[in-house]
Design a protein that fits this description.
Aminopeptidase, alpha+beta, GNAT family N-acetyltransferase, acyltransferase activity, transferring groups other than amino-acyl groups, GNAT_dom, five-stranded antiparallel β-sheet, Acyl_CoA_acyltransferase, transferase, three-stranded antiparallel β-sheet, globular, 5 helices, 8 strands
Length: about 170
Amino acid sequence: MELVTSRLRLRLPRHQDAAWLYTLNQDPLWLRFIGNRGVHSLLDAQRYVDHCCGHFDNWGYGLLSVELRMTGQPIGMCGLINRQLFRCPDLGFAYLPSGRGRGYAHEAASAVIKYAHSALQFDFLTAMTHLENFDSQKLLLKLGYKRQGKLFLKGVPAQKFYWLNLLRNDIA
């Protein structure tokens, strides 16, 4: 599976992505807003790739590696996740520092949303973001998501999330 935009290529993660995925999982913003996903070595990062690819096997969608189209430089991940909290997929994304602040997250998320609606036929998508992750909230609102309320996850102490949704007709 591959999605291509004017500046980006979104593709299935590969074991060769382990080094930059390890770096992403150690990023202070990842740890603060997403949390520790057990990626403490390159081998763990390869297992994370397997987990991401397994999501595609199980659900037909998942997180994609995002890279610059012209150079192949990896900049982050974006895709759909089945969190089993909601009745539809959840948009997820995270970027390396080199991929932030240039509009790449909006470009990649827009491509994923379009794919979810046209190819996968989802009329409804969700997203959740940490209450203090203002950049992600801003992006989701710009994409057309509507804030639905606060969400408290069992087993995630002292972290509150916004729950947002996006209907096909709400796409910005």
